[in-house]
Amino acid sequence: MKPEAEPARVFVPSAAPAEAGEQLPKEQVIAAALRLLASIFQQEVDHRLLADLQKHRNELLTSFGGDALAGLDLHDPDAAVEALAVEYCRLFIGPSGHLPPVESIVLGEGRFWGSATEEVVKCYSDLGVSPIQDSRMFPDHISMELDCLATLVETGDHQRAKAFAHQHLLRWVPLLVDHVVSNAVLAFYPTWAKVTRDLLAELYDR
Q1: Radius of gyration (C-alpha) of the chain in whole angstroms
Q2: How far apart are the C-alpha atoms of 66 and 57, rounded to whole Å?
Q3: What are the two backbone dihedrals, phi and then psi, of residue 69, each rounded to the nearest 5 degrees?
Q4: Which domains, and CATH codes, for the chain?
Q5: pLDDT tens track for 123-156
């Protein structure tokens, strides 16, 4: 039998540190990573998240090999947050050249609440999962789907988590990554988009 691959090294901000020599359970580490990624794409970065990421900048470099904070004026948090807000809006909100991080839109349905949305809503119901409560996001927003996957990971049911990833996230996240990499000015969103794609592929695309 092929040995189970080690999970990707992940950065977990604001998590209580384990005791010396103690390792967090694999499922807890992966779920925390997925929720971090969900928080990054949920909305514009705020001062608290930026400070968290800056505090652990070296860990990010070690874990992912890319500096998401490159190109930002970290000596002026207000300027950094503003620059990331402009980038988020240009990439995901508009008014032009944007691509909302929503499955139905990325898959080319041309409207929100498309068939992909209905499918993921049914999937949440069938799985007994309640995604993030945020009225600003559609059910097939990347943050909703990553949060759902994190919940499934925490249950220890790898098969259900893998099935959900294949039915949804793995179908469209690579397309979203292509958009982000092609259109971003700063390193922030391309770095995190590629981390999301690569973590999903490492865990489930095998």
Answers
A1: 17
A2: 10
A3: -95, 5
A4: 26-204 (1.10.3480.10)
A5: 998 888 876 666 678 999 999 999 999 999 998 8
Provide the 3-class DSSP secondary structure of residue 102: strand
Tell me how far CA of residue 34 lies from CA of 94, 118, 145, 153, 174, in angstroms.
26, 23, 10, 9, 16
Give the separation between CA 99 and CA 41, rounded to whole angstroms.
12
How far is 114 from 48, CA to CA, in rounded Å?
34
Token pair of 80, please? 């950094």
Cα separation, 41 vs 88, in Å, equals 9
Type of residue at 178:
D
| Contact criterion met (CB below 8 Å) for 102 and 142 | yes
Count of beta carbons in the 10 Å neighbourhood of residue 135? 4
CA dihedral of 150, 154, 159, 160, whole degrees rounded to 10: -60
Q: Which residues sit opposite 102 in a β-bridge?
A: 141
**What is the crossing angle of helices 26-42 and 188-204, to 10°?**
140
In the numeric block, the tokens 């839109």 are attached to 105
The first and second tokens of residue 148, run together, are: 């759902």
Both tokens assigned to 15: 């998590």
Structure confidence by residue, pLDDT tens digits, 55-114: 988 887 777 777 899 999 999 999 999 999 999 999 999 888 899 999 999 999 888 999
